[in-house]
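Input protein
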Amino acid sequence: MGKEIFYFLIFPGLLFSSFIGGFLSWFDRKITARVQFRKGPPLLQPFYDFVKLLSKDTILPKNGSKFTFLVAPIFAVFGAVIAAVFVLLPTFGIQTGFVGDIIVIIYVLNIPSLTYMIGALASGNPLAAVGASREMKLILSYEVPFLLVLISIIIKSGMSIKLSEIIAFQTANGAFIGSISGVIGFIVTLMCIQAKLGLIPFDMAEGEGEICDGITIEFSGTTYALVNLAKYIMLFVLPALVVGLFFAGMNFEGINILWSVLKVVLVVLLLTLIRNTNPRVRIDQAMRFFWIWMNLLAISAIIFAIIGL
């Protein structure tokens, strides 16, 4: 029991993933600033923002469900931390987990997005409701190609549905990114993660210029700090999952430490460059993009995986 609590609260759960996610958030903002010919924030700016929000008053919506509104960000952080534990332990090479944990990971990764929607709907704000509607449509769009890519990975790993076994298979036989189906799956997964994180071009659920931050419009103070904390954690967990699925996980022995860090940083860098070189798309365009083009690519990845490419 003590070990499970340590995994959840300290490493690789709440404390560890929050700090690494905060630093990755700084990296994302710093690269964004450089792309826009700005200096960018100091290293600890994400942590300053979090602490500052904790000191602010939390304003409750007048016409909403106050209890649900307050609880939603807590469950968002809880879901992000559970995802961190399930993803990071096998990715770091710690022998835990169970057969079928990859299926559980799919579910827990959606908890933060679902709780954002619940909190937005509980606020009673019509703009938040529009944001929640867009978020739901986005989830229904990107989850299908994401699942199809996972099917191709399961096929390539000898029908394994345990993340640690998928990583071990790559360690013995080479990373999946070195195959045709792996490259295609990586591209599709990168787009799905872009949408999961709510980054441009798939940030229409917040849409600052249209619906005034939409899904997060009513969050303030501590509730908004928790929303940001969940986003910090997910900014680390999702790239780490990509590393586990396509780059054979992480190895913290000798020079492999540097390579392991660089793999996560590379994925975050790609996400940052995508969001800084593309305009926001409409929700119908995003749905068409995932339902048609990403699904076609994911299906082609399955076909290539079946024939061994």
